[in-house]
Every structure is written in structure tokens, then in C-alpha cells.
Amino acid sequence: MISRVMTAELAEHAGQRVTIAGWVHRRRQLKSVSFLVVRDRTGLAQVVAEGDLPGEENVVQVTGTVTASSQAPGGVELVKPEIEVLAEPGAPPPFDLYRPVVPAALPTILDHAPVALRHPLLRAPLEISAASVAGFRETLDRLGFTEIHTPKIVASATESGANVFGIDYFGRPAYLAQSPQFYKQTMVGVFERVYEVGPVFRAEPHDTVRHLAQYTSLDAELGFVAGHRDVMAVLREAVAGMLESVRRRAASAVSSLGVSLPAVPAEIPAIHFTEAQRMTSSDEPDLSPAQERWLSEWAVREHGSEFLFVTGYPMAKRPFYTHPDPARPGYSNGFDLLFRGLELVTGGQRLHRHEDYLTALEERGEPVEPYEGYLQAFRYGMPPHGGFALGLERWTARLTGAANIRQTTAFPRDLHRLSP
Amino acid sequence: MISRVMTAELAEHAGQRVTIAGWVHRRRQLKSVSFLVVRDRTGLAQVVAEGDLPGEENVVQVTGTVTASSQAPGGVELVKPEIEVLAEPGAPPPFDLYRPVVPAALPTILDHAPVALRHPLLRAPLEISAASVAGFRETLDRLGFTEIHTPKIVASATESGANVFGIDYFGRPAYLAQSPQFYKQTMVGVFERVYEVGPVFRAEPHDTVRHLAQYTSLDAELGFVAGHRDVMAVLREAVAGMLESVRRRAASAVSSLGVSLPAVPAEIPAIHFTEAQRMTSSDEPDLSPAQERWLSEWAVREHGSEFLFVTGYPMAKRPFYTHPDPARPGYSNGFDLLFRGLELVTGGQRLHRHEDYLTALEERGEPVEPYEGYLQAFRYGMPPHGGFALGLERWTARLTGAANIRQTTAFPRDLHRLSP
To answer: Which of A92, A121, A281, B349 is packed most tightly, with the most Cβ within 10 A?
Structure first.
């Protein structure tokens, strides 16, 4: 390995001659003195030099003496440098990566993602995203969940029908999975508590700031619940663990983006769907984006919480595997979690009796045959269970305040974009 | 949550009246007394009962008094039980899940995966798989790697051409990604050290015991290496971390399968490709399965190691992005890691200079255009770097001695199988 000190640790080496390595983040050649700012994965370091210096995005290795400097990032700089260029770029970057504010519009950024993401403000959401996933897994591991990997190629476009990508599977038609829903429920029969972090695919024909054709879904499912509130309690733990991990693992990304991390109440406030309707003077069977925003603001005002559960969505608006509320049959044991004005998570208790599945499919006029594999799990005995799915990019966007979900993933896929 | 004690903790509650919940693993009704064995995610517990009892795979909740019994698993059993059935199966399982040896052939197991995987011996490889991935991430997190999520839908079938699945992407042709190779290299420019655990897709037209159409790839890539040996050193750490995690997190799966976990030498023995040729009296430009087996046995014999690196594969047999050995230009800085007779990992140092990529593509008669997005990373300055990819299912198969890779994943996809 190239023997080097990371820039974040430079101050610990004051007075020593050390080597750093990274990219030339900025070159400033003045009359009497010149500066290089070198960027590595931990931060920036200033080098004081003379003469002609390599330009931005040259990959360099710099050996110099660590010297105190109140002007430099981290309070130290490298002086008397020997600079070696490890790789020369073939062209200057499409925009200056050293500007404190990104001097480019989103299409330019996305077209040049391989270099644009080197900008500290553009890579920061990806750091927050990685830290969030680590916290999700950490929490569920602690709670006895087992990680699973399920098929992304499926035989039928069952779960929601529309918006699936077709694929040529050895000459047979197949589809990209829109969610691991059926598989994670099935695996409750094996491990009781399972999670999966993986890609899901939606052939979303609308070009919006909220939708991607591929996104990362954080899925969990657990058995032996008494009802949907047990699922909500686990979700509360997962979200708290994600935020704690972001605080611990992505502190510099949080601070450079100026992200305010929400507190998670010990119990997230929850209102029933009918109550939400009443409060927003609506009789529609679903909540509009405007209602979601209003309810979110209400939760902040009344409960000091940026999170709000809405429970008991009408059965007619939930998928066939949703468990009805035994006390109010037209309503479900399904819930949404709203966060900062938007639905972040959908979840609920599922049906668990084989005959209930047969009845639910029949009532919706759906054939049983495409669900054969899935229904096996219930035919052979399944406990009361439920789960939830959280879209990673949507989470990161709400957390960082990104105006467009495309800023929260390295190489977004949408109606128009298939590269880089 | 259903308030219960896990069966593995039952012995701690001797003398108390407690509730357990799970599946009826086995029912034995004798003349004077009957037994239920209840299975939950932590193990088995015996219940002593009377009269008619629910049959296998009923989901039950049992309240009883914990009593010492030298005959029972864990040394205790539940007596004076009250049994509540939470869900009744619609049919008996296709084979007895309580038999110590699985009484079914692979096709039956795969067709009935939702219930078959409940057999402790069939779920064990999945526990080892989950523990392995946790150890992989844990190790790379500790070494300063960042987790990434890359596109599984790509614009061109570049990396190896053949064996790709075509997809209809909003009316345009696209392909399922065969590996995150290009993206993980690109992200070295952003985070220096990255990893991804995710699905990859190969339209493998051969029906073998070693190939799947979808598998989980454990990918890592790191910058600022002095050469491929730095990559090999990180891989050694990752493999050691995976095994340590399996030992810690999947102890009962390891013991029920009788898996012998290999030791990882502080330095895994490595031989050059030309040496491997000489030792096996071959002049072929690649190693055959028989040669790989012979070399593995040699490493056990000579070095007491079940792992063996073969380095310096001929350039002609490696992909265009492979870095040549500066001292022996016809040979590469690429390596394979053999484990128990089979290639487990492929890796190496990559080219990092933009002009080297242009030359490499030209020499292979390949157009530059389909690689535009990828080449951006190098155009804007990339450090010397390298990485590796490890197939999770192949790893689990070698570790557990599974004869068929389909035994190491819950719902395999292959030439013939698209469900469940």
C-alpha cells in the first residue's frame, strides 16, 4: 500500500515529515508562493510549494513537513514538499470541484457523475445513505433478524401489475421484481424475522423529482406479532438506529450539508386514517400530498415530532395480503410513516391464514395460479406477521433536504437516463 | 408482540411457567403420553402433553412449566401445557421436516422451498451465508471502505458480451448488469475504498451444479495500492473476517452441518501462474478445474493452507482493464484465490491511466463509445487501484460442502427455474 497519513490525522504529526496522497482539489499559484489543496477520503490538506504545480484532479503523493498554520484546514500545512504525480487527468473537470457551492445544474452533474461526485457536497448524501443502511442492519441484527437475498427476476408481474420491466429469460418472458414482499413473507416461515437491503425496479413512466426506475429498498418482516403496532415499534427502532448511525458515521457529511437530524420520540405519534380524514376535512379513500404535509406539520406542532404514523388505511386501498382491522373490517392493519411532509414507509400486518389468502384473491377476482409459490408458505402454517419497506433514496432526500431524489444516488435510472 | 421465551433460553426459566411459540416440528402420540417438539428461530423445545395434539407445521403458542428432563433437547421440557393454535396448515408438508437427514431430493426441495427451508439442515447454509456477509461488511467498514449501490440496469453489454439478459427499458434495449465492476472502479475516484453486496445476473446457458442466473456478488475496490498484493492483503482480511463472523454468528448451523471452518494463514501462500503451469506440467493459458484441484491439494500439503493465490495470469485471458505486470508484460497483475479446489475469487490491479484504457481498447479492437461513462473516471484522474469479487453462493457451497450451489440460496434462478 502507498504508505501515507490521512489528511484528517495530519495534526497528530506536527513537526514530522510525512507523505499524504490524494487528488489536487485546488491549485493556487501566486507571485511569491503557491498552494495545493490535496483531497483524500478523510478531508483536505494544504501544501505550500513553489514553482509549477500539477492542476486540479491530478492524483498526487506529497511528502512534506507538517507545520502549524492558523490559515490552513485542520490547523496544519505541509511545507518543503516533494510532489509526485501518480496519474494525470486527460482533461480539466467539467466544473470546479473546489467551489463551496456546486457551480453546475443537475443534468451536468448527472452526466458527469464519475467526477462530479468527488465534490464534497455531492458525495455527502451518499455517505449519509451508507451510514443509514449500516444503522438499519445493526438495529435489526440486534433484534434477532436474519439477512436474506431474494430473486430479482420473477415469473409473473403480480404484486401491482403495472410498471414492471419485462425481461427475456432464456426465451421466456419474466419480470424485474418490484419488491421482495412475497419472498420476505415466505422467509418469516424459516427465520421468523428477516430483512433485505436490495434493488427494486419500477418502470415508472413519469418524470418526477420523487421517482427512480431502480431504488434501494430496506425491507423487514417479522412473525409472532400481536398486530401492526408491533411492526411499528420495530420500525421506530430501525429509524432511530439509522439516525444514530448517521450521527456517528457521517458526521462531516451532516455538518457540510447543514442537515438537522430529527429526534425520534420513544413512541412516534399515531393517528387513525379516519381521524386524519376528519382533521383535514376529507372523505377521499387516500391521503393527498397536501394532506400528508398538513398532518406532518400538525405532528410537529402538537407532538414535537417530525414523524407521524397514520394507521388503518381503508382495505380497498391496500394490497390483497393486508390484514383487516378485526374491530373495523373496512379498515386495515396497515400504516404509513410520514416524515417531513411525505410518506416514507409503508407497512402493516399481513394475512397469515391460507384460507384468508384464497378468499382475498377471490374477492379481488384474481386467479390463484400465479401466486402458487407464495401461497405455499401459508399452506404449511404461518404465524401472524407484518413488515415494512423504506426507500433508501427517499429517506436520504428527506433527511438532506435534496430537491430531487437523483441527488441521493450515484447513478440514477429514470425514464430518460440509462447512463453513466 | 406475543410475549414469549425463546426455546434456546428455556433452561434459564426452570421451575417457571412460561410461554413459547413456534411451529410443531414433530408430534408423537403414544398410548399413555404424547410429545410435541416446538421449533422457533433459536431451536427446539419438547412439550409433554395429553390427548389430541396439533400436527406438524401448526403454528402454536404453548404455556407450560419448565421442568428438568435429561431426555429433552436443552435438558428441560414444558409440562402441564395449555396449547393454542395460531394458524393451521392447509396440508401436511411434502416431506417430514423433523427427520435428521432430509428425506427429499433436490428438485422436491427447490419446488417446495417455502416449507423445505424450514428444515434445520436446509436453512443452515442460509445462516452461514448471512453471517459471512456480515463479516465481510464488518471487516471492510473497519478498513475505511464505503458501501455503494450501483445500477443493475445498464445501457450496453460491455464487460463480457455474452450471457447477458436483455430488458425492455421504456422501449429501449438495456441489459441486466453482470457485475458492478465499472461502477466500483468509478467510485474509487469518490471514496477511495468501496464495496457492494448485491445481485448480479448471468444468462448462463449451461445447467451445471456451479452456476446460477442470479447470484450475490461481494465486490470491493480500493485506491492508492502499490500493486495487486495490496488487494490480496485486503481480501485475506475480508475472508478471515467472514469466517470469524460465521464462527460467532452461525455456530449452530456450523455444528449441525458438521462444517470444518478453515484457518486463514497470516499470509495466504501465493504462486505465479507460470509456476502453477510448471508444477502441473501444462502450457495452456488458463488453469483447468483439475489443475485447480491439484494446486489446492498441494497448498494443503506444502503450506497447510486451504487457500492459495495464483497470481500473474496471462494478459490475454484477463479483461481489458487488467493492469499488466510491469516486469513481465505478457502477464498480469491479476490473481485468483483458490479455496478447496475451486476458484473462489477473481481480482487484480486495474489500469488507472486514461491513455492506457484507450490503448487497451484499441488493441482489442473495441470501440470507445460504449465505455464513455466508465472512461470519465480515468479522464479526470484516478489513482492506482484494484479489487476483487467473491460469489457468495459459491463461498457458502465450498464452506458447507454442498454438492449443488442451489442448496446455498433460498430461491435459485437457472436455465429452467423461475419459481418459486
So the answer is: B349
